[in-house]
Amino acid sequence: KEFLVEISGTTVTITCPLTEGSITWKSTGMTPVSNERKYVIENHDSSPANVSCSSGGKTYHLYLNARVCANCEELDALAVTGIIAADLLITFGVLILVYYFSKDRKGRASPSAGSRPRGQKVQRPPPVPNPDYEPIRKGQREVYAGLESRGF
C-alpha cells in the first residue's frame, strides 16, 4: 500500500494507506490537525518532512520532499503537446516562406553600388609584355651582341 500525495499551490494533502480505525498522524516540525485518513498541510514551505500514520499497531512512514509555489500554473499533457505542435508549425511556416522568397532571387543580379554589370565580357587588350623578355627587334641587335648562343 502507498501514500497518496496531492499538491495544489502551497497546500499538500496526504492520504494514509490505512483504512480502518482511528488514524494517528506524526510529522516532524508540524503538529497534526486531524485523526482522519487525510492529512492536509496548509502553506507548506517546501522543507523536507518525515510523516507517519498509524492505526492499530500498523505504521506507515513517508519522507515528504515536495516543492510548492504560490503562483505556479499547472499544465496538462494536452496543453503542452498543443504548444509544442503550434511552435513547430509556425517554425516550418517561416522556413517555407524564407525558402520561396529566396528561391526567386537566385537568378537576379543584386543592384548594389559596387557591383559591375553582368553583360557580355568585354575584350581586354593583351597584357603589357615584361621588358626583361622583349622580343629582339630589327635595329636593336647591338644590345644583345654580347650574348652568344649556347650549344645544347
From TrEMBL:
<dbReference type="Pfam" id="PF16681">
    <property type="entry name" value="Ig_5"/>
</dbReference>
<keyword id="KW-0675">Receptor</keyword>
<dbReference type="GO" id="GO:0009897">
    <property type="term" value="C:external side of plasma membrane"/>
</dbReference>
<dbReference type="GO" id="GO:0007166">
    <property type="term" value="P:cell surface receptor signaling pathway"/>
</dbReference>
<dbReference type="InterPro" id="IPR015484">
    <property type="entry name" value="CD3_esu/gsu/dsu"/>
</dbReference>
<dbReference type="GO" id="GO:0042105">
    <property type="term" value="C:alpha-beta T cell receptor complex"/>
</dbReference>
<keyword id="KW-0393">Immunoglobulin domain</keyword>
<feature type="transmembrane region" description="Helical">
    <location>
        <begin position="77"/>
        <end position="101"/>
    </location>
</feature>
<dbReference type="InterPro" id="IPR003110">
    <property type="entry name" value="Phos_immunorcpt_sig_ITAM"/>
</dbReference>
<feature type="region of interest" description="Disordered">
    <location>
        <begin position="106"/>
        <end position="140"/>
    </location>
</feature>
<dbReference type="InterPro" id="IPR013783">
    <property type="entry name" value="Ig-like_fold"/>
</dbReference>
<dbReference type="GO" id="GO:0004888">
    <property type="term" value="F:transmembrane signaling receptor activity"/>
</dbReference>
<keyword id="KW-0732">Signal</keyword>
<protein>
    <recommendedName>
        <fullName>T-cell surface glycoprotein CD3 epsilon chain</fullName>
    </recommendedName>
</protein>
<keyword id="KW-0812">Transmembrane</keyword>
<keyword id="KW-0472">Membrane</keyword>
<dbReference type="GO" id="GO:0045059">
    <property type="term" value="P:positive thymic T cell selection"/>
</dbReference>
<keyword id="KW-0391">Immunity</keyword>
<keyword id="KW-1133">Transmembrane helix</keyword>
<keyword id="KW-1003">Cell membrane</keyword>
